[in-house]
Amino acid sequence: MAVAIAACTSVVTVVEAVPAAAAEPSYFAAQRVGERPPMGWNSWNRFGCDINEDLIRGAADALVSSGMKDAGYQYVNIDDCWAEQNRTAEGKLEPSHERFPHGIKTLADYVHGLGLKLGIYTSAGTLTCQKTMPGALDHEEADAQSFADWGVDYLKYDNCNNQGRPAIERYTKMGDAIKKTGRPMIYALCEWGENKPWTWGRDAGAQLWRTTGDISDNWGSMTFILDQQVGLEKFAGPGGWNDPDMLEVGNGGMTDAEYRSHFALWALLNAPLLAGNDLPAMSPATKAILENKDVIALDQDWAGAQGHKLRDDGDTEVWAKPMSDGSAAVVLFNRGPASTTISTTAAELGLEGHTFLVRDLWTGTETETAGTLRDAVASHDSSVFRVWPSTHPSAAPMTTLALPAPDYAPADRPLTTTLQVTNDGSTPITQLRATVATPVGWQLDGPATFAVPAVPPGKSWQQQITFTPVAPSGDRVRLAAKADYVTAWGKRALGAEGTSPLVSRPPSGTTALSKAPWLSSDNGWGPAERGTSNGEAQPGDGHRITIAGVGYDDGIGAHAPSSVRVYVGGSCTSVGALVGMDDENSGGSVGFRILGDGKELAATGVMHPGDKAQALSAQLTGIQVLELSVNDAGDGNTNDHADWANATITC
């Protein structure tokens, strides 16, 4: 996967004040439960069933000491596996004697003493999803009353082991039971979006309703869930929110750039912001993402207008959200494999005027634009801006430095890119001095520094840059550039840097794709596995590949939606595999595709569990990048374990 160049705007913050936010309606002074998307922490994504009262107390302590409480996080939520396997003789739930020996009420009192709130979990079935404790089906009133008596403030209500009974009936019954207790409590439906809960969740008494299956800590899962939020914005608003599942930020399965995108888009969607990482051990980068108050403000805006996809240009997308003070928020989202420049306009965001004040919500920098919003966005990263119409914005012009790093850099070919500086403001920049660095093992063809007298408003300066390989080494090629210039508000500086994977052509002969270098790999649940089935969410937890009872000693184990890309450099002639759904799961349906340089070369129809393995092959003559793709066949990706058995290329 290429991690390419990102550019930032000026590092000097201007002094003009952002327009004041519109006054909130008086009823928000005593905010009702769920009036805004809840913020907090949940134990599941990082710890699963490995929980106890000390861990929950520690998470609550860390929520305070880390600054997350001050940033708005208030719920400390216990997920599955907290109770004894059986109910008491009176039919009550009982906390685990071993892991929660002091009980839930004592824990709730501790959490409340920190100024926080406690959440808990059960399922609208006979057992919870891990089958470690009873579900609440036919025990709704007793369990809701237990939660209320213990001081619980939030209930996540899952959908496992539901006996096939109607969802609306099951979830409404718990909603009524919560209401009957008289205790204010967030009620979060975790129905997985199977029966369109956004159309009936409020009537069932809920403030949140899950729109999809579970998230996994990887790029493929996050983007798959994001895509399913399109069109749901009309169902959300104060007191009732679409829930695309909890945050994975900081759990290690994605890059910091991917986590920035995850967090920014969830905030724009007015999603519940429920962190799921190890709070005491979180890195400075994770802390900076989760505690970014400017991004959080998008999620918590009192008007509650959910953001939506404004434009989809393939690998690049523009997402926008109207704000209560008349401004607009925008996310420039790059889901492609290489850095690229993405732009939109104030008019496209629904704003009127001739000049606009722009705040970069990652850096806090403020600039001015005559209408265009632009940034050089790294692969899988996002730029996030908030934009206000302003008659006299006292800020330096919005300026972008771009030096796009390619998707990949062949070790035997020149690398050519374009250095570009664009001025989108209403005043000129002058005395521009731009410099590029030469990567180790490469030679720059031409000068490294360029002097430009001025870049007028609405104009760009650019220069083609070529590096020739001399003795390239390592896994990646690092590109970097910097620019200094002068504005009416003083001197400014920009920087841009990033990397591309260094690739070589495969050796002659036949190579197993499980052993070949992968240019990138995205997977819907856990990582794609080399030589085994997909298994579960953790790396290396797959099994021997088995399709319709036949075992295979090699291949790639995937889970829809999945993509494995391999550089073949025009030197290979064919690719082949035996494909099918792995026997480790009995549900789902998938489709397999082979692509070359983005074009479909071969595909199967829809395949189901138990179908015999199907031979799938394609000619690769002239192809630079091979892609093995698995889709969900249009019915969601639950249980979509897919195998590329004995996948090989011939070169």
Automatic annotation (TrEMBL):
CDD domains: GH27. Residues 497-546 are annotated as: Disordered. The keyword Transmembrane does not apply. Keywords: Disulfide bond, Glycosidase, Hydrolase, Signal. Residues 507-651 form the Glycosyl hydrolase family 98 putative carbohydrate-binding module domain. Pfam families: Melibiase_2 (PF16499), Melibiase_C (PF17801), NPCBM (PF08305), NPCBM_assoc (PF10633). Its EC number is 3.2.1.22. It catalyses: Hydrolysis of terminal, non-reducing alpha-D-galactose residues in alpha-D-galactosides, including galactose oligosaccharides, galactomannans and galactolipids. Belongs to the glycosyl hydrolase 27 family. This is Alpha-galactosidase.
